[in-house]
Structures are given as C-alpha cells and as structure tokens.
Amino acid sequence: MWRRLYLCLVLVRLYFALSPSYIHPDEHFQGPEIIAGEVFGYPSYKTWEFTSSQPIRSIFPFWLIYGWPLTVLKWIWEGLGYGPVPPSIAFYTLRLLMFLLSFILGDWAIHELIPAINQRRTAIILVASSYVTWTFQTHTFSNSIETLVVLWSLVLIIRLRDNIQDTQASASGVLAFLGVLGVFNRITFPAFLVIPLAQIVPGLYYKPLRIPVMLFVGLFTLAVAITMDTEYYSGRRPHLRGFHNDAVITPWNNLVYNADESNLAKHGLHPFWQHFVANLPQLIGPAIPLLFFSSTKNTLFWSGVGGIAIISAFRHQEPRFLLPAVPLLLSSIKVPRRGARWWAGLWVLFNVLAGTLFGVYHQGGAVPSQTWISQQHNIESVVWWKTYSPPRWLLDGKNHEVTTTDLMGMPGQHMIAQLEESAACESAANGTLLVAPSSATFLDAFTGDATQHSEIVFTRQWQYSRHIGLDDLDFGDDGVWPTLQRVIGRRGLTIWRVSRQC
C-alpha cells in the first residue's frame, strides 16, 4: 500500500516540476539565467551578485549541476538538425533534472539515513508528501542543491562514524568534495553539519589516513572551484605565479558581504526568531507540534535544529533558507497513533493548498509570457508591472532587440506616465507591451469600456489564467476579503499592446 502511495506522490512531484510557477527570482537569476548564457550564448541579465567588484556567487556549482545537462541537450538537439535549442526546452529540461535529483538522490539519501524499516517508510512518505518537495526542490534554487548536498554529507558522516575499523577512503574523499561544493554553492551549508561533523572526530584518531585523503580531495576541488571562478570573473585563465593575487574566492566575498548588517538591511532585516517562529511553520505546517512532542532526537533532528539556530544569526531570513532542514526534521518526527487520521487530514490539506499556490499559480504566467513574447515580431520594448523580475534568458536571444523594463510595484500613475513616454504611435511598426496581473484594478480605468481620457491605448494581446501575484496584495487600503476576492477571483497575467494616439 505504501509503495502505491509513494508512486502517486512521485507523480505529483513530477506534475509540479513541469508546472511553470515562479517562486522567487533567485531560481532564475542565481542559476539558469547565467549558465544558459554560457552554454547557448543567450544574452542574459546578471544581477549585482555577479557584476560587483567582489562577486559573491560561484560559477563552479552552476557548471557542475546545470552546465553539463544543458551542454548534452545542445549536442543532441543540434545534432538532430533542429537548430538552436529553444529556451522553453532548456527550461523544462532543468525542471526535469531537478525532479530527478530530488527523486533519486534525495529519496535515496533518506533511505540510507534511516535503517529502521517502519520509521524509514514514514519519513519517505512525509518528505514525498511535503509541498516543499513538490515545489522548492523541483525548482532551480541553490537551496535545493544545498539540501541534497547536506543529505549526502550526512550519509557519509554516519558511515564514517559507524565504521572506525576501515579507512573508507572513498567515503572520506567524497565527503571532502561535497564539503567544498556545498560551501561554494551556499555559505550557509556548513551550519547544518556542525553537530554531525563532531561525530567523525574519533574515527580520524583511529584511522588517521582519512585526513590526507580528505585534504587531497578537498584542496584539489577547492583549486578547481577557485580557478573556474577566477577565469569567469576576470575573463582570462589564471596563472600559478600570480594566482594568490588574482584569485576570486566567492564564498569569502559572500561571507564578508553578509557579515555587514548594512548590506543585509538592503534586503530586509528580521529578528533572530524569524526562522523558528514564522519561516519554519510556513514550510512544514502541522508537523511543528510533532517536533516538540513526538520526534526522535537523533542526528538528523539536531542537524536541522542546529543549522536553523546558526543561520538565525544572520538578520536577513527567508523561508527557502531552511530547505535543508525540512527533510531532516520530517524524517525525525513520529506520527502518534492517537489522532493520526486528524493529523494526516491537516497535513494533506496544508500541502495541497500550499502546493497548488506555489507550484501552479504563484507568478505562474511569467515564464509562459516570456515564451509568448519571444515568438512575436516587431516588439521594441516590454514593461513588466507588479510581477517578479522576468527571466531574460527565456526571450530566445531577443534581448538585443527587446528592451525589458521591470517596474516592480511602482505606483500606477507613475507607470502610466512612463508608458506615455515610451509608447509608439498606433501606426508604428514596432510596439510596446505591458505585462501586468489581471487583478490590477488600476488598469480598469484605461482598458475597460468606460476608459478615462488618456493619450495611450491598451489592446489586449494575450492572457494566462493560472497566475496569482502575492505582490499585488493590498490589505491596508482594500481590506483582507476584498483583496483576496480581487487577487484570486481575477487571477491571471495579461499582456497589453500599448500605443499612443497620434
């Protein structure tokens, strides 16, 4: 019975992986936006993390995780005579890749970490039924990669801890490799391993040959990572003679940046308890009480709790920073027999609602809109309003032809004023597009039947219905219920052609 349930949950995960929802800009701009430009030559938009004098994002994990699958895709696609790879194909290839990594490596790691059969089955079902697994883990987040690296690091740590009779050179070397990969992927990675790593110290004493193996593999991987980053950011291949002066060490730059609270203030400061009190409940919902009253205080539990406690020292805190802790904590809880059906019902309801929101509707029209725009001709500029930043790499190389302007949450009147300046005449060959949520009632005065006097004309071109933008919430002015009615009842993303009467 549990195998059938697990198979159904895997299919649910695949469905959400292939749904074009958009949870956070970093899933594009800290991965695909960069690597797609390198592999396919697409003009891509680089955020400040890649363009500052002290860049904080490493290219090493991008090539390792995303680069080779896209390169293979390019060889196959072009080898079959189909021409350049369309960005939409590359997008869904990466989503399928993340699904396979989550399904194979993630679930396999849990199988390895929990030896007791009944507890293992419970853990696998809980993790497989979590909306975090369906959505975040199947998107191209560095946090999703961090989750997998943490899980397999724990697998190797426990192997080394439980067997101090053998050197286990392979496990020692792979652990060192994963350690370097994890740090270059995200500097928060070591926080989840601080407590477990203490358990392998006795093994290093009894089998000291593990130390040179770890040092050799770790230093070699470190050298490769730093060389790749230095070549990427400097534009030239580094030489050994001047390596110590020219080397770009992105994890160190990242740590220095995040240690300065004035930098974190640009992204939002949160109290130290934000992760435990607000962010973790958003991710695991009804499982929170079981962590306190019905859980096994094992290595997985303390790895998750310890990691959350350590990264809470950084004042900027987002729920996705806790992704590595989710499978660890869910694998530690025990569902009590008393009230199990009620709890299971709450768990299913919580994850179905959250999965539907984040896996289907959340900014769900952004990717399809870019795909549609890439297929149009005579488009000079595209203005995005009240949406997440659009992934430029999905424009299929038209970045040089199409100017993308991200107005974010700019007040409506200012947005209209900017459109009046940029829109061409109705008879002009090239046009301007406005991409905006259908729930933006401000536009009704310009697009409805009784439009107010304006120099610009809006013509609906395309609409995608499965789109909800939480950035369009305005509880303060509109009230809670009217806001929800507007955002959910008028869900969708609309593309308007904007022109001036002249």
UniProtKB/TrEMBL annotation:
Pfam families hit by this protein: Glyco_transf_22
EC category name: transferase
An individual GO BP term: GPI anchor biosynthetic process
EC number: 2.4.1.-
InterPro entries: GPI_mannosylTrfase
Transmembrane segments: 59-77, 89-110, 145-162, 174-197, 209-228, 342-361
Record's bilayer topology term: Multi-pass membrane protein
Pathway entry: Glycolipid biosynthesis; glycosylphosphatidylinositol-anchor biosynthesis
GO cellular component terms given for this protein: endoplasmic reticulum membrane
Chief location category: endoplasmic reticulum
Coiled coil residues, start to end: none
Sample GO molecular function, one term: alpha-1,2-mannosyltransferase activity
Subcellular location: Endoplasmic reticulum membrane
Keywords: Endoplasmic reticulum, Glycosyltransferase, GPI-anchor biosynthesis, Membrane, Transferase, Transmembrane, Transmembrane helix
Family recorded in the similarity comment: Belongs to the glycosyltransferase 22 family. PIGZ subfamily.
Protein name in the entry: Mannosyltransferase
Species whose genome carries this gene: Zasmidium cellare ATCC 36951
